[in-house]
Structure formats: structure tokens, C-alpha cells
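FORM 12-B: Structure-to-Sequence Request
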């Protein structure tokens, strides 16, 4: 990483007492800022190669940490529970305020990987002025009907089983079952609901997220990978269709373009092609 890029670990606190660290990579004269939201169960540190590649090309990158993971002072269990509402109305506004404090006045981008991309869309729908551009990488709606065969056959069962398991255990034991991390049962319930219905809603949030997404106008750049069964192009297109007024650019990467297996996770270690596309 260039000496001209600052490497920072910045403490953040939400208004409900949750604390975490945002990992930042800030070039000397940034042209824009990016708030990046991780995939389900993925700690912020795993996106540092992506952040450093962007910072080397003039983008100040701030990697959010999900509640319950990495530097977060909370862990999901029977006593500690949350869902989309807490992420959208407590945590993300605090990270946005942090960015404005450190790089005031810059054009803002918000983006994310997988679930992070979905939450980025919902956050923009709630607060359209929080960023002027949206970047999605390996993201899309979990709605079972838009997945190709054979996954669409078993996904409805998963969307019913995982919330049940989270309720029984007090939190989803993601590491044990090979999906996500230790996830709050409310988060899994919100996610599963969108997987079954195709609609976004957050328990305890009295706002029609679907209507808000439909009204959103934001320049969007989305990248899918041709061997990504977790976020196929069909699921991305379904998500983008919710933001029907948003101008968009959609690209599907094959292995030849990425220089690695074009699946859900490999790009995180070899992000140069993705970075070039997003900045192109």
C-alpha cells in the first residue's frame, strides 16, 4: 500500500450503545468516499485488499463492520438480538456520520457484497441523500423463485428451517452449519422473509421499504459472476428491478476477465478487475 494512503481503524458508536471499528483506507487527495457493507457473516478485514486497491486509485474507503462480527462489542445470543431495523437506523447512520467527519464534502458512494448490497439498497431507500452512487458486487435478492434450478427447489425449505434453528439455539450457529456466522435470529428472520416473499421489510420498522426502493433514483453499477450460485445474475436483476427509476450498468464477469474463479468470494482476494470496472 502506498505511503500516501492512510490506514485507520476508527471507533464508532451507535445511539443504542453498539460499538465497533470501521476500517478506513484514505488517499491523500480522495475524489470520492465509499461506505462498503460486507456479506453475511464476513468480517470487515476480509475486504482490505479491495479497499487498498480502490484507495490506490483515489477513493477513500470505509469498511463497515456488521453488528455481532469482528470488532463489534456484541455477539448474537438469547439475550442479544437484532434485525434489519437496527442495522438500517442505528449502525449505518453512525458510519455515515464518521465518513463525513473524516472526509467532509466528498461525493459519496455506498455499496456492498451479497447481503451488504441488499442492505445498501435499503439504506439508500430510507435516506436517498446519504450517497450519490450505488455499487453492488455479487449481490441480489434471495427470493427463491428467481434462482435457477435446482436451487429453487430447496431454498424455500432453507428459509423456513434457518429461522427455526436460530430460535431454538438463540442465534443461528452459522459456523457449525457452514452458512454465515453466528447470526442474530431477528436478522435471519428478516432475511428469510425476503427470501420467501421477494419483498423487503424490517421487523419493527414502520416504513414500506418496497415503496421506498421503487422511488429511489441513484446511479447504480452492479457486477455479477457467472459461477456464483449464491448471487446469480437472475437474483441481481430482480433486486435492480425494484429500483425501476435508477439508471444502471450491469456486468457479468467470467473467469477470463476476473483472472480467477468467478464465484461469490474469490474476487475479494483478487479485486483488481472489479476495481477497474467500478472506476471505469
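FORM 12-B RESPONSE
SEQUENCE OUT:
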Amino acid at each position: 500500500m502506498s505511503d500516501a494512503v492512510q490506514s485507520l481503524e476508527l471507533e464508532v458508536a451507535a445511539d443504542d450503545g453498539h460499538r465497533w471499528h470501521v476500517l478506513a483506507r484514505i488517499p491523500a487527495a480522495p475524489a470520492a468516499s465509499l461506505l462498503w457493507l460486507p456479506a453475511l457473516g464476513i468480517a470487515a478485514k476480509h475486504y482490505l485488499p479491495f479497499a487498498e486497491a480502490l484507495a490506490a486509485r483515489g477513493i477513500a474507503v470505509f469498511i463497515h463492520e456488521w453488528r455481532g462480527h469482528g470488532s463489534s462489542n456484541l455477539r448474537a445470543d438469547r439475550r442479544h438480538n437484532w434485525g434489519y431495523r437496527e442495522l438500517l437506523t442505528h449502525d449505518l447512520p453512525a458510519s455515515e456520520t464518521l465518513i463525513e467527519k473524516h472526509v467532509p464534502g466528498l461525493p459519496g458512494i455506498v455499496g456492498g457484497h451479497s447481503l451488504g448490497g441488499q442492505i445498501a439498497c435499503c439504506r439508500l431507500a430510507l435516506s436517498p441523500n446519504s450517497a450519490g452512487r450505488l455499487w453492488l458486487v455479487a449481490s441480489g435478492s434471495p427470493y427463491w423463485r428467481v434462482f435457477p434450478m435446482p436451487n429453487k427447489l430447496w431454498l424455500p425449505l432453507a428459509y423456513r428451517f434457518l429461522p427455526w434453528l436460530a430460535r431454538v439455539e438463540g442465534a443461528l450457529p452459522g459456523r457449525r452449519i457452514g452458512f454465515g456466522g453466528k447470526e442474530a435470529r431477528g436478522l435471519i428472520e428478516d432475511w428469510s422473509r425476503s427470501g420467501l416473499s421477494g419483498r423487503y421489510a424490517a421487523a419493527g420498522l414502520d416504513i414500506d421499504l418496497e415503496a421506498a426502493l421503487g422511488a429511489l433514483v441513484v446511479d447504480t453499477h452492479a457486477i455479477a459472476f457467472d459461477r456464483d450460485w449464491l448471487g446469480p445474475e437472475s437474483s441481481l436483476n430482480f433486486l435492480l428491478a425494484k429500483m425501476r427509476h435508477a439508471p444502471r450498468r450491469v456486468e457479468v464477469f467470467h473467469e477470463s476477465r476476473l483472472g480467477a474463479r468467478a464465484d461469490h468470494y474469490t474476487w475479494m482476494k483478487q479485486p483488481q478487475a472489479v476495481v477497474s470496472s467500478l472506476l471505469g
